[in-house]
Hints:
The chain is mostly helical. It contains two helices and no strands. The protein has helices at about 10-25, 25-40. The termini are far apart. The model has no long low-confidence stretch (mean pLDDT about 80).
Amino acid sequence: xxxxxxxxxxxxxxxxxxxxxxxxxxxxxxxxxxxxxxxxxxx
Length: 43
């Protein structure tokens, strides 16, 4: 298995891309919650 570590960067980028795709739909809700919490905090 040690001689096949050249596939690691692809797996890491694929994992990060997968997480980014999952987070994209939550961005508007996250920004809204940040604005609401900042509004209540007085910022």
